[in-house]
Design a protein that fits this description.
about 375 residues, alpha+beta, five-stranded mixed sheet, 20 strands, about 30% strand, globular
Amino acid sequence: MILLLLACVHAPAPLHERAPAVRLRPEAVDGLPSNLHVDAGLRAAAEELVGDSTRQDARLAPTSVRVALGRAGYPRDAHFLHARTGDSAIPRSLLDAIPASVQVDLGWASRLDADGGYAWVVGWAPQAGEMDPVPRDIALDQGFPLRVDGIADPRLFVGSPEGRAQELSLASGEARWVDVFHVPGEYRVEVVDGDRVAFLYSVFVDAPVPPPQPLPGPSSPGNPSVAAAELAARVNGLRASAGLPTLVPFPQFETLARLQATCLASGGEVSHESTRCPGVPAMAEHDYFPRAKHHEDVVAADNVGEAWERLYDSPGHRLNLLCAACTHLVVGSALESTVPARMFSVLELMAFPEGEPAPIIRGRQ
């Protein structure tokens, strides 16, 4: 990569003086299960999060997590858990909450409080693939090469500070030049593998990295019906700001969206379809004709605000919300049975190129 030194008063510092390129280089550590590998960037993010007031009865807000990951230069959407203990040993309960069936990046940090107790934050993320070095900070109108390995059919999305999202071509094992950074601010770079996010990373273009965010207190997920209505309103608000038409409800599919959300919440899984939860398109195809064209987003969060933040921060999800051909929308929400409970929401944006679906009338055998 060529580094340009600009001789004007407000020019950004050269990249090598600002933030180093980041590559996932996790290392095995004695005493940890063989599938857990410590990553320095993930540990730095945990150290920043544990520096705030960590409460055991509240999850970490997406805003706090996003800023910590961006400042640490960790190019992935990670999960963070936290707890309080009476000793300096990493809580086994947090390690046991990490899936044992996949290879995992791991980072943790602790804080000794005045009462002699320890506050812990443990961060982890599945190792979805490999990414070549990427910068955290770049200059305006510059770019960087991006290459990922280990993902059969990767999809690349970039979200701009102005709220726009776009998909760029990307082939596994082949580098492409990403040069869409023409407005100062924070961009979100996302690589999707099937229906899961493999990498989700902030790039700061001629803009400072945000300061640490205070962690929130406990929050209530609220009423699922109210949450679904608010998410639908936010979708149409986003579309109005982008000059797109308002989506209208399609009551016939509202029950299907609620059924899917309830199924996902009962198992604590965030997916578009599974052996347990067939998905809205499959259920609709079984009971209605003709087929609709579906653009679906699935999200789990502590409340509506966090759910919307997760959707908006993901360029791929945001691109679905801004589907220009879509005309109809249904949202289904449900609470999981754990304490504290998360709200699971399924957002179904649809187009009806062959006409509005109607129920299939099946005769008795």
